[in-house]
Write the structure tokens for this entry.
Amino acid sequence: MDSAGLKQKLLQLDGSGYKSYRGVRGAYSFPRFELFIDYVQGDPFAAPSRLRARVPQASAGFEPGLYDRDVRRVALEDYLARAFARAIGSVVRGNRGTGKSGHIGVDSGGQEILERTAAVVNAGFAEVRFAAGLPADGRRCLGREAVAMLIDEVPRLVDASLFMDALDGGAVRRHIEAAEDQEWLREWLRREGLAAFVADGSVLPRESGIRDLPLKGAGVVEFISPPELRREPMLPNRGKITGMGIPGGVTLIVGGGYHGKSTLLRALESGVYSHIPGDGRELVACRDDAVKIRAEDGRRIEKVDISPFISNLPFDIDTTAFGTENASGSTSQAANIVEALEAGSRLLLIDEDTSATNFMIRDELMQRLIAKEKEPITPFIDQVRNLEGEHGVSTVLVMGGSGDYFGVADTVIAMEDYMPRVVTAAARRIAGSRKDIRAAEGPGRFGPLSPRAPLARSLNPRRGGREKVAAKGLRTIVFGRQTVDLSFVEQLVDRSQTRAIGDLVRFGLKRGFFDGEADLAAILDLMLEAVAGESLDAISPYAEEDARAGRPGAHPGDYALPRRYEIAAMINRMRSLLVRP
């Protein structure tokens, strides 16, 4: 059916019951694009309807070089979703009645460039997936208002965002090339044996703790690398740049309060993702297996081998398969490290401000007062070198309160007025001059990692007679009868990632990946391999329902690809989780 037919349908629905809108589901040919109405909401207060606008590539005009590699395709799709969102701000009138009436929205993201389902570009077409609240007065269709939305506004949105000749070609290419350079930097880090890189001129401070935009103004300090750590990578698009390369091994970031230690670490945490031009962190790169570790009092732990850090507990509690419903700061931080390693991380990012003090250090005075046989904790300081030697795990650690770490560090960087200075030699000299030296504690080795196989029967997405999986904001997932708290999973950056994590676990259960034999790392591999082969669309419950009904799929437009480490974090924080060691 063409757009005139859709217009006639909508006019005929004017004044009828809201569920009548379901009759407009289908595909419609417009002069320059095709509109798919994939899912129609049943109520004006319910989640908005799901639509797609598709332009044939012959008309869209995006040359293959803009999407011929995954990194370029992802960046172009990201740009188109943002262009559609910008157009909404200038084209869409807004509220048109009850509930979500008149709303048009697209998942356009924040400062990061992530693989999303909001837009699709290939050799055949360019497509944007968006949500629309079909207009209502109470629970009556406002057909004429729906005509204004779908017949007038949507074509203007498509014209502004899905045709190359309507876009700023230079901005499109800068967006794509920025993402490509950042991915190249992360690959370069591994080749060079580096943990992270911060380019000269980067702007690391953010506007506030709740706004991720770069800080602006006369007092903003641009990053300048210290000469001892300066590197000069040659990027594929920008060419030669300079900046600070943080070596693998154990790196301390020290300095006084408010001098930029934690700001630098937060930039490194975020450096596992690519950022949009103008963010200030476009050339801050961290190895993509980096995981931020912190204490997490109160979380549940299920049969995790924390014995490298905690052993000889009172009452002979087994720490090789430790479980608790209410972890302490030290046990939670130990479990968080072991779980990150289990998922494949080989780079830990730690800030003393969010760590359990007794997990990080037991100083010489405390050692004198409390004998080792009465202290079950082997502090991190006594395992950090074993982690590197036995498992190739590097650590970047912000430390402002304990100089004991000077003796185990390969590199020490002091932040002064947001500027880095290498002080490794001075730190070693100070460490060597001490008269009262703490004794190393623990077994002298970390030991093997102990994989665990999650059991499918413990991960039930059903609530009552139906599945219930949903993201509630950035840090909460409802999964069946339980609510999973991800408040301290700090490298989650987008609610669409959170939404995808819940449905990925549900998808893994349906595919039989949780078979009681595969360990968690293998399950994560299977999930991400399936998504890479089939796209993120495959995890959508809408796609499954439509496949069963023999209808075209209601393709999701609100997923962003999460990392394996955040998927693992969700599974490990489910209070129902059972594993087979």
In short: The mean pLDDT is 95. Residues 169-192 form the longest helix (24 residues).
